[in-house]
Amino acid sequence: MAQLRIALAQTNPVVGDIAGNAETLVEWTRRAAGRGAHLVVFPEMFLTGYPAEDLVLRSSFAEASIATLSEVAARLADEGLGDLPVVVGYLDRADLAPRVGQPKGAPLDAAAVLHRGRVVAKSAKHHLPNYGVFDEYRYFVRGDRLPIFRLHGVDVAVALCEDLWQEGGPVSVVAEAGAGLLVVPNGSPYETNKDDVRLELCARRAREAGCALAYVNMVGGQDELVFDGDSLVVDASGALVARASQFREELFVTDLELPEAAVELGEPSHDSYDAHDGTVITVERVLLSADPVEPYEPEPPVVAERLDDLAEVYHALVTGVRDYVRKNGFKSVILGLSGGIDSALTATIAADAIGPERVHTVLMPSRYSSDHSITDAEELVRRQGVNAQVVPIADIVSAFEKEIALTGLAAENLQARVRGMLLMSLSNEHGHLVLTTGNKSELATGYSTLYGDSAGGYAPIKDVLKSVVWKLAEWRNAQPGVPPIPENSITKEPSAELRPDQRDTDSLPQYEVLDSLLRDYVERDMGRDELIAAGHDPELVTKVIRMVDLAEYKRRQYPPGPKITPKNFGRDRRLPITNRWRERL
Amino acid sequence: MAQLRIALAQTNPVVGDIAGNAETLVEWTRRAAGRGAHLVVFPEMFLTGYPAEDLVLRSSFAEASIATLSEVAARLADEGLGDLPVVVGYLDRADLAPRVGQPKGAPLDAAAVLHRGRVVAKSAKHHLPNYGVFDEYRYFVRGDRLPIFRLHGVDVAVALCEDLWQEGGPVSVVAEAGAGLLVVPNGSPYETNKDDVRLELCARRAREAGCALAYVNMVGGQDELVFDGDSLVVDASGALVARASQFREELFVTDLELPEAAVELGEPSHDSYDAHDGTVITVERVLLSADPVEPYEPEPPVVAERLDDLAEVYHALVTGVRDYVRKNGFKSVILGLSGGIDSALTATIAADAIGPERVHTVLMPSRYSSDHSITDAEELVRRQGVNAQVVPIADIVSAFEKEIALTGLAAENLQARVRGMLLMSLSNEHGHLVLTTGNKSELATGYSTLYGDSAGGYAPIKDVLKSVVWKLAEWRNAQPGVPPIPENSITKEPSAELRPDQRDTDSLPQYEVLDSLLRDYVERDMGRDELIAAGHDPELVTKVIRMVDLAEYKRRQYPPGPKITPKNFGRDRRLPITNRWRERL
């Protein structure tokens, strides 16, 4: 057996900031060297950030990625770090003649091994995900190489993210070609309960490959996606060895005992293998160092404590806000505070993400606002120390009503729009990012005003069902310190307060019942018959399907927010607008 | 040789309206029988409408399509139309075990042949487009069958849309298997100048297949897409025989002399062919009728007159508005009329699309509005007979300014937002669809207010560069009848009138110069070096790249409109929002 100390760089790259990400690579490699690591592994597409969407189709972007990879390899050597091999994801290009249907420039979701100033091996993702949030057939062509580099006597293979999730391909080739360790850079977005699936998957693939597996994931928010870290190492039997923290940047170091390579290295160094998925993969063997390291005392492996399910969701939301603000170059956020639970939770998430001093709230009472709407909001301001101002909307609404006659829903929407406009105006004047406060239950059923409460740049809780909003508020209040959310905001009956004595239940079913149905209809795409077979009340199914389908039109115009479940709105649920399909009701 | 009279059903299906589309199929088949046709061909995915986006992943939708196909076959026979074979596109499913990465339910972009009450042959699109507006790897699995049915002694093969655009696949198999006619149902969206490309393509594929080719395209608007019809027939040498009109529903009938089939039909009726693209295609032969029809006097072939380039664009815009209004169930539209060219052209397009009596305009003068902004708008109202009302915004703006202090851009945006809110309020009150009036040059450079002039359900000219806006206005005024657009709206210098003496050229370059640069940067994805090499001024390149990149964030929130060029905003230009990539400036 041979020893290796591996460092998994659970980092937070910025999409498009190739120079900044390269800087991070050098800095973290220096830290890994300081920790005595023999190998450092960065996430998928680390150099460009991920997902880079249509940027990967732009020539100048691909060229910058490729050039920077070589430059950073040379720089590592210049700075005395050349002997520490680095595995890093980047954007490359396949050497293919252009053809119809192939993405422009034949981009590759690639990984490289950097050593002694040079790029010594390259590969690219073989399996391309093209479901849910992923569009990778649009962006990439398939990789067909598996690098295996010998490091201190251990053969180390490199595969990428989706290569674990599908059958055949690099993992099955590792099983035949033999390796002591499989390292896997990932860009794997958070979804509720995905961590359990991920561990089971890594364990299964390690057994299949017949070697230990080191999984490194990125961390941080990127537009609608949140990456949760959760990097981990399993041994060849699939047993968990070490596991990094969730939602936090971390240089995660683990000592491993690994089998010495048995294969004789010689010419030719390339071999073709059946990948058991109808394709052929070429193994490319590279020798970095043949002899095992001198025996040393290993550090005990770390298994970070897991967050419980509500804590995970809360951290995902905070991470989403923090990185959307930072990566877009905002200094502060602004939001309307109604005294209700949705805006209270959103303000709390924002304060936890960027500090209360950078959170600006606006209380915008109307002629229909209850007294507690102001007092509950003021109580939250007092507890959290966020900035607050009061802007009454009655006179502005009157000015509109003097010019045009409005009734019913149009009059209700006007109030929501005046508030949205006030927030956007203050945002334009002072540079704050506008946060919207709508939850998933409201948005799914269309209980929201276009250009009103839905106006803003980021929607922190847009993928959180209302019943989960309450649970998160209670969870957050149960954490150490002053409970940030006034109890009255949690316990009072929800109301939009757009007309006298309005209650959410005037238009919507009880949220527990509604949310269970929305999970099945929106997230699981069940049809009417399936929903009824799953035990939902037929009359309610009819009503809710009608509401959700009618709300589709608005949803296409809704701004991005974080994604924490397998399905959310907008990009994930691409239904045509001019669409006459209705479930048979 | 044998004669065949073929009818190409250049129709306008509604996405999701399976029952309505089936009704249209029966009605048009009856008309084709009345015209003495021997074969009628409907467009791609006709039964479901196209593109159906994520609807194809819903079980109940796929089941309804498959069931309706059988029902409509039976109904045709019941109504005495069973002897006339029908080729029609629909949504089917492949019989595949589910696997990761495969779309849910393994949907097929399928075509069927209906005859004597039964579905006698099925196939599905082999090449799936996954570029530009197409996401078909997300939605479909590949078809691998080529039906060849013998009709009155002529072998007729069926391929689908993209199968023409890529090398290998069904067309190359037709060349080997032999056929007298290749019929191709299409859903091919309009782009400027695409008609020329389409004819050349059909000619080339006919020569390659060694037989005549009948190309039937759908017509009409579907959200961001507009289908232009332009169905056509070429002979085996690639020469144009007949060509249908553009942007109009039409049952297009053509008589053809075709070679009699030479292949002996017998068991087995299936043969496997190398598709020359790494796959294998199975030919499925079906006998409908062996003997040629009695000789008859053919009708002379029709080649419809072509629209010139500006007329094409104008028809595409009118079609987009008309179908968005109709397919979404609106009765009327509303828009702001500023006296400027953009709103004047938009109003004219709307009036041409649905009639001036269903167009509602609102004149919303502010303290900065010039006199001619009102008089030019009133002149348009007078010429076209659209509905009009005047709603001054000064008092509403003052009411806002009494509550919050706004300066500069924030104060300018407020005016645009008050106007957007008035239109949305009137829309909510009276049920009109709000049309926005922004053009592509403005939107690309961010010269637009989020939730202000960009607020609305449909943006008729969002993909039209400003220099083309002027050309379209002049073109429309040159048509027979009263020139609908006041000359002063065309000739005056453009201004947003959001502050005293404002001119577009305060912030933007001259539009001719700007638009040429936008074509290369936005539509052709050129990088900075390429743009300069193409002859653009380096300083202007720097400035415009900066403007366009900064406007990305807004664009993701912009509502849909028609698509008339290879690239537009939003869905086509998917750049991450939190993106730090900038062209090196």
Automatic annotation (TrEMBL), chains A, B:
Q: Which GO terms describe its molecular function?
A: ATP binding; glutaminase activity; NAD+ synthase (glutamine-hydrolyzing) activity; NAD+ synthase activity; nitrilase activity
- UniProt protein name: Glutamine-dependent NAD(+) synthetase
The enzyme's E.C. designation: 6.3.5.1
Extract one GO cellular component term from the record: cytoplasm
Residue ranges of domain CN hydrolase in the record? 4-258
Annotated deamido-NAD(+) binding lies at: 413, 442, 554
For the ligand (ATP), the binding residues are 336-343, 437
Query: Function of this protein?
Result: Catalyzes the ATP-dependent amidation of deamido-NAD to form NAD. Uses L-glutamine as a nitrogen source.
**SUPFAM superfamilies in UniProt:** Adenine nucleotide alpha hydrolases-like (SSF52402), Carbon-nitrogen hydrolase (SSF56317)
Keyword vocabulary terms for this entry: ATP-binding, Ligase, NAD, Nucleotide-binding
Family in the record:
In the C-terminal section; belongs to the NAD synthetase family.
Residue stretches in coiled coil: none
Q: Which reaction does it catalyse?
A: deamido-NAD(+) + L-glutamine + ATP + H2O = L-glutamate + AMP + diphosphate + NAD(+) + H(+)
What biological processes does GO assign it? NAD+ biosynthetic process
Is Ligase set as a keyword in this record?
yes
